[in-house]
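Model the whole thing, not chain by chain.
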Amino acid sequence: MKPRQSSFWKVFGIPLGIGLLSAAGLFAALLGDGGWDALSWVGLGVPAGIGAWALFQRRG
Amino acid sequence: MKSKTIRRWSFIHTWTSLICTVFLLMLALTGLPLVFHHEIDHLLGNEPELKQMPADTPQLNLEQLVAKAQAHRPGEAMQYLAWDEEDKNGVIAIMAATAGTEPNSSHTFMLDARTGETVEMPSANGGLTLFLLRLHVDMFAGLPGKLLLAFMGLLFVLAIVSGTVLYLPFMRRLKFATVRQDKSTRLRWLDLHNLIGVVTLTWALVVGVTGVISACADLIIAAWRQDALSAMIEPYKNAPPLTQRAPATELLSIAAQAAPGMEPDFIAFPGTRFSSEHHYAVFMKGSTHLTSHLLTPVLIDARTLAVTAIAERPWYMDAMGMSQPLHFGDYGGMPMKILWAALDVLTIIVLVSGIYLWIVRRKAGKA
């Protein structure tokens, strides 16, 4: 594998996963209530949680 | 990536962001309370409340309700009847000086389907949330305002795409979610801007694109009238103007027969932009979760009550229908609304930190 390719996956691997999870969450709640709603809370909760965690991290 | 390529993307990111940031900040700030507009209107006492009556109290028929509405606002034309989502006895009536009057000059109120009693809906005609909504939708500038905001939305999408491209060279030597806390304030905010930007990417793209689609609603409806509606009402081109419309009483059962398995969403009366001069249009929605956002209009001759046509649903009307929940975030209960608000706040932080980073870099360049 060329070094450039590997750096692409190194950099974008996790963001891509989070992006797919968010997309699944956005779509899930369109399909039904109950479990589908819960799935959307997880899908959107992950990006919201990471964002909030980063902001409130104290300087080490 | 070559440094020349990086400079190019950086240029695109800087300028698309700078141009749209002020508008996007306004949209994000007004959108935040709008996520909770139901709750706010309840608190302010602006939501209609129907009387408690026995559960099996019979409902009036549609024409009786129309008569009650017309007695309430004599001299005005009925534009739309819709069904309240929370209370099945609530029928929302929209009336205006003429059937063709533009939506912002209409008056919305509620009828109790059991008694025909009218209940005002202050939140639909004025007040805080409607003010915020008008700012959010068109900045009180009508179609030009909507199109300007649609353009800003497109710039926002470009800024997101270019920002994602730039994420690669910035993060090549850093682990995901690294925030350099103690080097400098600029580095800390650069890392936060990149991290929050990349995790909220999907949500921001979806809300951005669906916002652009919603902002183009007037054009989409005009295209639908041109494409789908005009062919169907062609035989009525030379018909004399409608003087006496047939009673609305049976509209729902006629529409239900024409479109089995669907449920009524709203009725457009003759002369509105969702019907023709000679037709009632009963908009039927699908009965599953997903298809409940997709509307199929049944056109009913307003003189004979014969079904003229079940209008086709072009893809762009479906796109508009699906854009609404995906933009409002109102389809997954209160937890989803709270997450929607959190992601909105995070987007505000990305916007503001972006301006900050630009200012700091400019200052450094001058020094």
